[in-house]
Each structure stands twice: as C-alpha cells, then as structure tokens.
Amino acid sequence: MTERQGAGSNMRGKGPGGSPPAGQPGSGPPGQGQAGGPAMGRQMPTQGLQGGPQMEKARDPRQSFRRLLGYLRPHRGAIALVIAIVLVSTALALLGPYLVGAAIDRHIVRGDLPGLWRMAGLLLATYTLYWLAEYGQSYYVVSVTQRILQALRRDLFGHLEELSLRFYDARTTGELMSRLTNDVDAVNRVLSQGVIQLIASALALVGMIVVVLLLNVWLALATIAVMPLMLYFTVRMGRGTRRGFREVQGNLGRLNALTEETIAGVRVVQAFRREPTIMAEFERTNTAVRDTTIRAQLMMTLLRPMLMVFSNLDLVVIAGLGGWLALQGQVSVGVIATFVLYARRFFEPLLTIADLYNSIQAALAGAERVFDMLDQVPEVADRPGAPALASIRGHVAFEQVDFGYVPGVPVLRDINLEAQPGQVVALVGPTGAGKTTVVNLLSRFYDVDAGAIRIDGQDIRNVTQDSLRRQLGIVLQETFLFADTVMENIRYGRLGASDEECIAAARLANADQFIQRLPDRYETHLSERAATLSQGQRQLLAIARAILADPRILILDEATSSVDTRTEAHIQQALLTLMQGRTSFVIAHRLSTIRNADQLLVIDDGRIIERGTHASLLAAGGFYQRLYQSQFARAEAESPER
Prior knowledge:
Blueprint: H1 61-72, H2 76-108, H3 113-162, H4 165-169, H5 173-215, H6 217-224, H7 227-264, H8 266-271, H9 275-327, H10 333-374, E1 396-403, E2 412-419, E3 424-428, H11 435-442, E4 450-455, E5 458-459, H12 465-470, E6 472-476, H13 486-491, H14 499-508, H15 512-516, H16 535-549, E7 553-557, H17 565-579, E8 583-587, H18 591-594, E9 599-604, E10 607-612, H19 614-620, H20 623-637
Parallel strand pairs: 3-8, 3-9, 6-7, 7-8
Antiparallel strand pairs: 1-2, 1-4, 4-5, 9-10
Helix pairs in contact: 1-10, 2-3, 2-5, 2-10, 3-5, 3-10, 5-6, 5-10, 6-9, 7-9, 7-10, 9-10, 14-16, 16-17, 19-20
C-alpha cells in the first residue's frame, strides 16, 4: 500500500459515470476480452492477451532484445562469470570423449593397467569438475535472473500504479495480470536457463565439429553429413509443434476465462441454477484442451526419436567407414570410439536449440508486451516542478468545464459550480447524467477537456496529484476492502495512524459495535473483498477509513443506496459526523442525505439544469420536483411511520 493512495484509493473500483452503456453520456469506454492462462510445458508459447491462438513472435524482436539488455547491464560482472563457467563446462564436456579414445589407444591396447588407472582418475576429475561447473552456472544464472525479473516486475507494477483511470477503463484485470504473470514468466523461463543452454549448445556443437575435424577429416565429414537432415526435420517438426501449442494456449485461455468468470460470479450461477450449463461448457473446453495437448505433445515427442534414428544411422556410417579406415591403418580404435561418443551427443545440442527457439520467441513476445505497457504514458501527470497543494480551506470552483471519456462524445458541458468551505453540495439526476464524472474530475482521475477546476483558487492541474488526494476523502457505493485485518483496512486511510486512532475513527463511524462482535475484533482477517461482511458493514468501515484520513473535501458517491433503512440510519449518523466542517459533494438517490444540503445541483445530459436548495427547487416545479414526486414522495408514502 502506498500512502499517496489515501482515502480515495478505492475510487478505481467503479467505472466512470456510473458505468452506463457505452456511448451514452457518463459512460466510459467498454472493456476488452479476458486474458488467458499460464503457459504449460517448455515449448509452449506464452498466452496471448485475448485468449485466442496467436503467433508468438515479437513484432520487433531486436528492439525487445535491446531493451532486455538494459536490465542485464547492471549484472555484467556476474553474466561474464557465467559465460566463463559455460566455456569451462563445455570444454570439460568435450574433453571426456577424447580421454576415452586416448585411454583405448594408449593404455587398453597396450595393456598398460597403471596408465589406465591414471586415465580413469583423470576422467573422474574431468566429470567432477564438469558437475561443479554446471552447479556454479545454475547458481549464478538463477541469482542474476531473479534480480532482473524483480526489477522488471517492480518497474511494471510501479508504472501501472501511475497510469490514469482512462487506461484501466479500456482494459480488463485479467489482461493486466497476464502482463505481470504470464509475460514476465515467459521471460523468466528463457533467462533462467534458456539463454545459457543456447550458448552452451552452440559452443558444444561448434566444439565437437572442430574436434572431429582435427581427429580425422573423413570421419568428421561422415559425422557432419547427417546434420542437414537433422536440421531440416527439426525445423519442420518445430513449426508443427509451435502451431499445436498455440492451439492449446487458445483453448487454455478460454478454459481459464470461464473458470475465473464462474468463480467470480458463483452467487449468480447458483442463484439462477446454471451449474449444469456451466459444467457442460467447461467439459467441452476441457476436452478441447486435452485433445489439442495430446496432439501437440505427440508432435513434440516424435522429434527426439526421429533424431535418434539419424544419430544411430550416423553411428552405422561411422562404424563402417571407421572400420575400413582402421583396416587401412589410417585411424586407431580409440579415434573410432571417440567419434562414436561424439556422434551419440551430436543431436543433443540441435534438439536443445530447436526446443529453445520457440521459448525465446515467446520470451521476446512477452517482453515486448511488458515494454508496451511500460511505454504507456499516464494521461494525468504532474507538471514539471509542480508544487504540493498546501493545507486548504475547501473552496471549490468548476469554471466552464467540458469533458468526455471518448473524443467527440461529451459527458459534461459547460459545468459551473462553486462550493464554499464547509458547504454540502448535492448532485442529483438520472443515471448516466454525469454526476460521478464531476467527482472523478475533482479527484483528478481525469483532466478536463476545457475549463478549469480550482481549489482555494489553485488550478488542480498545477499541483501534485499526491498532495491533492491527501486533501480528499471518498466513500463509494461499491466499497473496496482488502484481504487483511479490519484494523489495517481502516488504517489504509492514513498509514501512519496508531491503533487507538483507528479505533476512535471506527467509533465515530458507528462501526465499533459490529467490529466488537467479530471473532478477533479489529484483528479479524477479512476475506477477499470482505465478502463475509454485509454491504452496510463495509460502508461503515469505508467511512471510518475516510474519518481517519481527515480530509478537507469529502466525496460521497451514492454511499447509502444499497443498504436497508435501519443500516442507512447508522450510516447517515456516521456521515453527518464525517461531513462536519468539511466541504462535501454528495451523490445520492435517497432524500435523507440531500434534503439539508446547502446546494442542490440537478444534472441531466451533462449539464446543470437546476440549482438551489431543496425547498426552492420544489417550489420551482421543475425537473427536481418531478424527481422528488416520482421517487421520494413514494418512499415517504410507503414509510411505516405514515
């Protein structure tokens, strides 16, 4: 949690303008598709953002690679050490077969048992050093990789915190989670071992070619002759495998999206008895995942046996040609044994390179999507050298404000209003009229398209966002509470507050009574989104959080619209305590909050069409009177007190 988020942090939990249909006044841009799930298997490319089959190649792999290098540069020393260890381990791996051949020619053929024991000891030392080099390589690679990924995640998460609400309006939570998990994980899989394996395999392949050419040109040519066929089938099979796993990823994306949506909406699923329908859909998608995975895995597993066939064919050629050359006295038995051992290992680097090709492409594609996110420029940003907003009295003025979430689709037009310090300003009007947009602009979650918003005479665009939001307290209809203790959820309003201050705020908010009935009182851990609490209890905690923040300007966005009358009475009492001495903007459909407001602003179609007090607007006989008669008069007629 960051202190800058303050009491207004949960504003992101609600879309602009009450989220009416896209394209209508007060609506934000529509969301996008659900992200897919994590990748499976070492050759499986990272899931695309929309969950469907996508080509897992970066649009500009060189640029993505260059930007990744920027994260590697601080670890140049460790990377150089890893490369040195790789060189040593590759040399040791190449040395083993050579020593076996030398042992045959120099000691076994001659019956030199002491020499053979010395050679066996040398072989043991070689493979022991090789194991130590591999261990050291793995240790340093994991250490460096995790530091790089830590920096990448930190930069991405920090940048996401700075992006404006308009950015979140156009993207789903799953899509953003995919960037932080799937895409970063694709980079992790390659950096942790892939790059080093690629270097080691390339070095081993080149080293074996050089060694066999030095030992015997004819046998070397026979060994290398099979390489074009191996490369050809590796590339062909690799393409088929890549296509198969893209199909798997598409089905996995749909399966994960269905699972996530069902779990999130489980109450609706159960309430409308849709379990059989959902289960049938899940079974169809799950079966598709099974079938496509089987096909893709079979395609992948066919490659290794096929390469083994070529490797064994190579052994036949080497044995036949080597035997003939040995009869001619041109090679020794030890050289033939060395070639046989190298031939057995010849296909392994090729297979490793083929495996890593897909993973590297997926990593570069994942890195590109991460960097695309890092390149997003916050729409609302502090101006260079912007000062902090000092302690304020609470005078707020909107001056000829125009705004639209989508260019060319205005939501607010020519809004002029003035709130004196300590006044209560109520915003009323139909859904989608632009009421929530007014408070979104005051909180500077968006910048106005025209006009200005001033607090104590200062344009809010000229001060830092952090200092502005420290002066604001926001209580929303949809209260967001974290999976933490009750105490920490209240303390979110001011992170430096003591336990005693948090408890005092809860008492002022009328929340202490129900908190005392919880199993561990203030130390009770809440479930995700505090699903175990009622809507009214969550609202009281949000009010306690706002009281603790001690804001000069208070925003109440339909804070009592989803609770019963009795709970509303408790909340109203807490709100009256909270509003004392503070400039307050209240959005409400219920009369109890707005009847005594200093100003009532009636908003319709993005304009202020009426303004005054409750009594004066009723007397005027306009829009507000009709709204009152249609809603509030009916509520009073149905009240038990009448």
